[in-house]
User: Fold these one by one.
Assistant:
Number 1:
Amino acid sequence: MERIEGIDDKNLEARLREAARTASPDRPVDELELRHLMRVVTACSLLRTDVYSEDRIARIMTPDRTLLPSLVGRLIEEERRGDGEVLYRVRRLPEDVRRVGDKALFDAGLLGLRQVHGIDLAELGARAYLAASETLRLLAEDRRLREFFRQNKLLVLPVEDEVAFLRQCSDRFPQHAGILRHLQAPVEEAEGSQELRGSIAVLGAVEDAYLEAARGDEPESAALDRHELISAYERMVLFSALDVDRIRTALDATVVDQPRAVQALCDELGLFASGTRDLRKPPAFFLVGPTGVGKNHLVESLVRLLEGLWQIEVPMLTLEGPNFTYPSDIHELRGATRGFIRSDEEGILAVFHEKACRAPVSVILVDEVEKAHPHLRTFFLGILDRGTVTDNRGRVLNFSNSIVFFTSNLGYSEQQQRGAPIGFGDDEAREGLAGREVAQDLRRALSPEFVNRVRMIHFDRLSRSSASRILDLELDRIARRWSEVHGLRLALDPSAREELLRRGFSPLFGARHLAAVLENVCNVEIARKIRRDDRRGSGDRDALVRWLRELRQGPGTFDADEVRRRVHGMVRADVGYDGLRIVWNGAAFEYVAETAGEAGA
């Protein structure tokens, strides 16, 4: 399969590292400073509002030392009285001041500005970071607010470390501005810089789209925080450069004989690429079809493709519908309320949100949703409408960056499929009956409110030729691993191929069991044979293990190719042959050893 290429932040990171080596050779920047500079370049490119208000500048440049403690004290007191909006005002307080410092650094470093409203930008930026540090320190002195920052993961670092880092940003403002100045010239001439500047131009359009979406009726408490907002911008930039036709080709190659489903999903991805989707609401898809036709596989394949395309992790959460058969099971998602068992534990969604909120896109898969209690679908209506849910600790979890998939076999149960007519024209009759059954089951099981919020994607039944293609894909995956680790070729005799298809495929269950059958016959059993035939000694495994542990615990980088060579050299079996042919003798599978010469003959 052709590898899909895309835009990511590697080019910007490389340019910043080079600029840092040039501008600050005596005091190299650490990873935190590098992330800070990348944030300034990307986030301030998006900023369309003027952060340099006269009141804000005055508070930073000539601070009233009694004003900030007084303001923080009032906010803390309001929070203690139970004002639900206070915490969201609190979380923005240090961030609003820090934004002034970021913008000053951006303007002084990349735009070459020296003053704003008659104030020296270098001095304004340094003081802004110092004021943000002091604000955060005062907030964190209150136990409840410290816990709020900890639970909501609003900061990149723990509070004490964030305070110290903001002070460091203040101290090193001139050096950071110098690095950005050195970044400017190389970016103009560097290979790939047009792509980088194009990304920043798209970010400006994204800002307009976000501001337009934000003018809706959403309450302020549902607004995106720093991580979520930047993730939304990054998501739209990544999707704007997405080659949907190549995605379709890649999915067609891995999700066998489901062109309608792949086309429907790619049509939706085209909307992402256009930038016209509402940033606040996650898209939702309802994948319906017979068992074993690739519904989950389509979702998993999409996640792998996006990860390979963008070189990032796409967090994925899978919820099994049969695990939510009682109304009380829904508490597992948001966490049990106070007074109930395990109310001190976080819900499943809260744990997932910690990773999802820091990624440009994430995936939630609810498998076999028809086997869950209807309350589960009702629960997700809030997420599909607003993109948010409140957990058992009162935290607002935002999933606007998620893509939500529901899978179902509605209309395709075993009993319904067995009841389909047989005989002449049975394929056409079965298709007509299945379509009617699906429509009836969907109307009976799903509320109109739910149906109106999801995009229905229908999957077709698999044929025997479809199963044969799936067998080739699965066998190739197993064979590549044996070749890589042990230098062993696998070949499948026609007799064995027919037996594997007979065991792994059926019109009722599709190819659901095919992967498991192949895993046993072509992986587990071969591993047993290799262990029996292995003639090598134990070698110096202890020395290799000690070396690997030293690498894991030691600082710095290591040569991954060298590690792989030494490990494979130790574990590779010595069996006297380099190939195995799998044969079915009518009663059992046999594994015939072959050498390269014999295989060619």
Note: The longest strand covers residues 402-408.
Number 2:
Amino acid sequence: MSHPNAAPTAPRSSSRRGPAYELLARLGGIAMDLLLLALFLFLGVATLDVLIKIIVLVVGYAQAPDPRLVADGLFPNWDPKRHVNDLRDLGLAVAIAVAAVFAFLGGLRARRYLLSRVIDASFESFVSKRYLISRSSGSLVNLITVVSVLGVSVGVMALVVVISVMNGFDSILVKRMMGVFAHVEVWPPFAGEDFEFPAEDAERIIEIVEGTDGVVAAAPLLSRQTFFQADTGIGEEKVGALLRGVDFSREHKVTEVAAADSILAGTGNPEFREVLLGKELARKLRVDVGDKIYALGKVRPTALGPKGAIRSLRVAGVFQTGIYNVDENFAYATMATVQDLFLAEDQVGSIHIRIDEPEKVQVVRARIRENLFEAFGTQSVFTRTWDEINPEFFEALWIEKVAMFIILLLIVIVASLNIIGTLILVVTQKTREIGILKSMGATSAMILRIFLYHGFFIGVVGTTLGTAWGLWICRFVDRDIEKIFQIPSAVYLIDRLPVIVEPGVIGFLAGCALLICLLAGIIPAFKAARMDPVEALRYD
């Protein structure tokens, strides 16, 4: 029986068999490592799937309504065969997990056999992998290694899931924001007293813009701040709002505020002296479809002092965009209604534009400016893109995502501390073997690389497993999350958690986690490399 602290047994030399054999052995070793990693990932995902199926089964039993109520049709969305289906899915998941266990154990035995027969890697990599999967390692070291791998995996899994869900929510918010403010806006040059286009110029600009490559549609817009009252009288409460005058026949092609999906009540096509109110604005005014409200227009001097134009408007509809600030402060009316209220006959405030690829907005904006310059000569226009209209909103989304990334990355950092502890225990346990290796000619750099590889292998396994777990959970959230809980669509305007998996982001997260794990192995590796072989051989 060999001593538990004996140096790892070297495999039979393959150098006498020629470089071709050595190359094949290296390639076979790499292929075996990748196969073993794939089997480990298969086992990890199968185990996670079993846990998910158990949770789904338990939640299904907890949420099950009275069968009599189901029979009476009070729960039309409830599947009476759900328990049977959940049990069947759990049984299948358990069978797959058991098969994954046997496959992984078989792959592990095959890898150990290959390590003991041929040299299929560099000396440092061979010794490091031998330490990692050797049966002679202490049970405490093996346990801490497993904990280190699981710590890294959980951290990476949390990063992948949270960032993917946040990407999904950001995508919905951005889409809704662009549905209100369009993709590009064209404003008149800041010269003169009035910052509006004459109606003739506005029509010409729309014609030029719609002929630009990448533009879907364009529509005129006239926005004014106003006050609404539910009734006349000085004592009546006044509610400030932004009244936007639009051409609804064109507006439906540019924004989605007046679309059928956004209209809660009434119509999305108001007539002259009718208004479309946001949900929260209508609640503040305590009005409904068909009620009259009064709007304060342009203030003009009179013999009795300044006086504002007041018009009565009929509430034609109520909309909801899902953006609270818009639903609380925005109202829409026809262009003629706003022009009449603010004495801006034949004036247009801006042109807002929808393009086919919002991510290429800067390119399309440059084309628009170039075409307008050719048409109007030296006359310039001011343009804004969707990300410049509300910069604070998009900056807040970015800061929120970065903050969440940093917070969740702390989990990986904590897990990397376990890697440091694991490697220190391995170095302490292998002190005598390190002395033997150095006495046989191994340099300090080789010893350093052995333990760096050890930490790197733990990081690779933990990171890949965490990434696989995260992607599997994202798949479950995207397809079957309603089996556990349902989002109230009346509150969030969505009926499921949105998930967007971006390969570039996932690769960046995995790279950060792997780098942290690699850095965690530096201190123990340097400790092992600086050992004196004489003192190491005396260690018992």
Note: The radius of gyration is 34 Å.
Number 3:
Amino acid sequence: MDLNHLLLWMVGASCGLSAFFLLTANRWKSGRFAVAVMVGLILAISFAFLPQHAGFIGGGLWLAFMVLPSLGNTAVNWLVSVDRFALARIVARGLAFLHPFDGNLIKPKFITALQLIHAGDSTRADAILESLRNSPNTIGRAAAVIRMRTTTDFREFIAWVDTSAHRSQLLTDAQVVDAYLQAMGETGQRERMFDVFRERVVSHQLATSSTMRHVMRMKVAAFSGQVDFVMQVLDGPLLQLPDELKDYWLATAYQSAGNIPEATGLLHTIRNSRNFRILVATDRRLQNPVQSTVDEPLSVKDLEVVSSIARSLHDETQYAVLSGNKPGNRRGTWAIIALLALVFSFEIPGGAEDTDNLILLGALVIPLSLVDNEWWRVITAGFLHFGYMHLLMNCFGLLLFGQRVEQAWGKILLFACYGISSIGSISLVLLLSEATESNPAILVGASGGVMGLIGALLGHLAIGMMKVRSRVVVQEFMMLFLIIGLQLVFDANTPIVSSTCHLMGLLIGFSFGIFVARFQAKRQ
């Protein structure tokens, strides 16, 4: 496969999708949007004047200014989480040269404040955070949030948001909304908390990750005394939270429900934490319990919101497979990848791009009469690949989509969907192909199975849209539909790719997904 052609499509799709989603999330003023547009424009200009090198030019810029900053920020966040502050600052300074937008220039200073908080030096940390919090970027807003949680001055934070000239812009930031909701819950302003939650979260006006959405729901439920719901979220979508943080919020729910002994017992178990912020929050919770729903019952309108939170969690857990994060391993997906890699290792001695070698190992030859009608090739062809790039692309697709299918259905149905889609799509190519003995064709690759997994997810989401009223499910369906559209356009413009195999795999997987989702819905 021509790497330049592949990079053209990959970079163009990445820039286009990034710009589209940032625009729809009202984040077109961000540095990420500007970089995506810039790289996309340079790619287009390069294609107009240097089509044979445009993919490499765009790919280099994409790697340097989009991929590396994204991976680098993930690394910085991880280093901070494991208390490697000095190394986190070094990486952050390097990233600032590649992406000097969105507050990256002041991120090293922010990391210093986090290090001081970790060391218990809240006075110096507060001075740094105070100097950063009015910066009009993500880091400035994060500084305001961290300062509030360190000083526990919740009323001051509410006032900072309410009096800001950019209040509406602040409330498009999920971390600010999360802190704002918490501050109102902490100060007993429960009615305002519900109003903001309805306005920003229930109405889906806030672009946020599924994890942050679950965190906000959990906090609102905790301040409402919904112990069972808080347990459900902490044991499900938020299972990866630190145990002491889960105990803290469960204790908050118990306090709000009027169960003071249970709350006090949990809070005392986390007083030995090494996390300074947890210690400060725990001491405050012990000294100043949250408002009890026994003394101040929820209104009918607020109870409706609480009910809608539980319903949304159920619907998204069942159908929102792209953003869902159910607990459990993904061994089935990795088993398929390992099998493909093992088979590929047998291709290498004879040449992974050598046609005769691939036929010897089991590639599908069309028409089959050329290989004595060896029908088993419709099975073996799905495990062979034409070179490293072909294998890597299919393994990437498996990682991206296979894990989602396994999350929704488990590994047995994952294997079934993948196997049926792979064998079925290759068999249909054999029936539909116009290749003849004088003009034969060969077919290898797991892409029919991968497209089947994508189709299965689309079918699962389609049933979800019919069964539940969830904007998240609709958004995921439209996002996946857009990805499939781009894939089919790519197939149509790439001669070496079997668009028929991809389309057949997609349709088989879609049918499989419809069948499984309907069967599961009837069982509930």
Note: The mean pLDDT is 90.
